[in-house]
Amino acid sequence: ELCRRVVMMNSNAEEKSSICDEIAEQLCSELQDEVHLLAKIIPYLGQIITSGVNNSPPDASNLRTSLQQNYVKSDARRTRLLYAFRVFTRIMSSFFQPLIILLDDLQWADVSSLEIIELLVSDTQNKNPVMIIGCYRSNEVDKNHPLLSMQRNLMEKKEACDKLLQLTQIELDNLGENEVNRAIMALLSIDDATKTRELADICHKRTEGNPFFLVEFVKVLEEEGLLSFHLGLFRWKWDAAEIASKTASTQNVVDLLQVKMRKLSLEAQGFLQCAACLGSSFTSESLGMIWQHQNVFDFKSISTKKSTNELLAEMTGGHYLEMLEIGKFRWAHDKVQQAASSLTEEGSLASFRRNIGEIWYRELGEDNLETCLFDVANLINAATESAINIEYAEINLKAAKKARGIAAFESCSEYALKGISMLPSNAWDSHPDVTLKLFSLAAEAEGYLGHLDKMESYYNEVLSQTSISTLEKKNVYMAKLQSMANTELRYEATVDLCLGVLEDLGCKIPRGKVSRTIEASTLLHQTVKMIKQTPIETFDTLPELTDPSKLATMDFLHKIADSSCLTGEKPFLLMYKLAVTRVVQTTLLHGSFDVSGVVLAMLGWMAMFVLGDIETARYIGERALQVQEKSKSEVGKAKVFTFLSTFIFYHVKPLQSSLKPLLESYQSGMRTGDKSYAMWCLLYHNVFFPFMIGKPLKLIEEQCQASISLMLDLKELEQAACLRSFWQLCLNLMGSSSNTVEFSGKAMNEKEDVIDVTLTGPSHVTFLYVKTVASSLFGRYELGAHL
Question: What is the structure's pLDDT at 419?
Fold first, then answer.
């Protein structure tokens, strides 16, 4: 709605606004390629971006190419979407102040939508005035509803963020008998409460005090002649006993509205039934596409032939519909839509909805299907028994892909499952491409949702197909690997599976300890030598690696590098060396791909800590930056600079020189969904480097408080634990805590939060480091030496 109003402001020829250009410029600057991700969800946003006369919007093909060539992790898709919505809200709230967003009917919101709402509400980094009002029907929300979980999460964040987050809960009951009586008195212009009491009691009993139901009930009484205005007496007349008798069968407002609708012409009733299938809002064009085929439906005998616009005008005049703008309508209330839908006999409703979906699909055609894809798919899927239809399966495949693209994994799973149910029994032979894509999407979605048994069944089904090559099975392998590494934390098993896949792809890595050790050492020295011998200008002109087999090999080797590092076991560090050096050599020999900069940074780390050569590490680090800057994709930028600033440049460059690149890398990581390394960049930019440089402790403490909520929102607990240690150190040094070297206070409690000093994870190392710093500054030198 906000974007629509911006577009209308910009389209006003008399009052041409520059706001549209300014919003487009800021969005494109902040989100770059990711702005197209939001435009898929907010159609009017696309018009804002393309109408900006002073800027050229990013090319969406860059984003599409990156997504097509490389498997994008499910949690990365979610992070990209959440970050894009946060940036969008910050920018919009900077132009429209205060920005008040009203979200109604939250009882129907899915989990993905609630995640976005939670992140917007808890955005403590947005300094612009924003109020988000959420409304829901408490009688439709049970204790297991995700909305209540969101409320609990927000209350916890409010306690953690102190005054940065304000929450207010207001409960509105239905109208009581006295309030209904006062409403009836106002509607009928009667001052004596006793005269309307009996009528008000009937109205309250029939509507249970719901304001909308009450108004509709009074309208029906007038239309039925049970409530009338006497011109002679100049007052309203009614017979309470007659009203009670004739409305006794009306159990709820849907029954009431249905009775009212059945008095309309058969043509109007059929028109409402068709409109009810198109959702809470729709365009006259879409409804017209369907209504022109009214002869397909069994609406008995329709005596007249009114146009779509004539019927829309009639339904709007009857207060069934409301016009949002020219050509776009919505139902006056969801109960009106429900009543219109109930005009169709229950036994034939599913087939009626499927017929609507089929007509809509044929009328739209493949080229125009995208904007209505979910609605069309939902209608086609309405029948409980799935028809074997490859065309319908392909529609569900498109819907599943679109849902995955906007991180709606529950919907992705449902569409993929429905598509699979529509495949013929010999689908793997007759339609292998569609079948493979549906099973791969289903495996990825179920893995993200934590339904590991379902994910495993889809994974095994794909693997059992001997006619499908290993390369074609790449996405389902990646879904399995993501589940093993991120959900089950089985890093060693992840490495073993990658090794097996790589062998099938023709890339063999020695499994014996001795041969592996020899090859790792040889490749490390050989690769470093290759880097030094390659002219610097060559790194600017590396071709793009496009061979699908080599790209898949690089992805699996990169996965080995990440998982080997996370095991923390020395034998697997050899695998880390082997994977990194092979990827770097492939980059130099065949061309770069998305994470070439990342593996060069990893090689620089090995030059520093394995070979002990600082100058070589610096040189390789600079080449990593060079390759990353020339890359068409931002993927990996946050990871590259985390490695370089933390392990290499920290030793050879002033810390101040890393602050701006760290901020840019944080933003890049959020745009591309690399939330883990984005949070490391944020930690170093907001806390660690400012502390080392000597920034005011009060400033660092404020940045700790602002950063912790984002880390917790994204569930990056390791980075949050590191930050808490620095935060408590600042509080101790500022005298805001009664402790000096004991880290127990507002930010953390060392007796409960950490502390197994034998562990080597980043949060434990950070805790030991800051406690050593505190021991030194407070004169506890023996404790510091011991630590």
Answer: 95
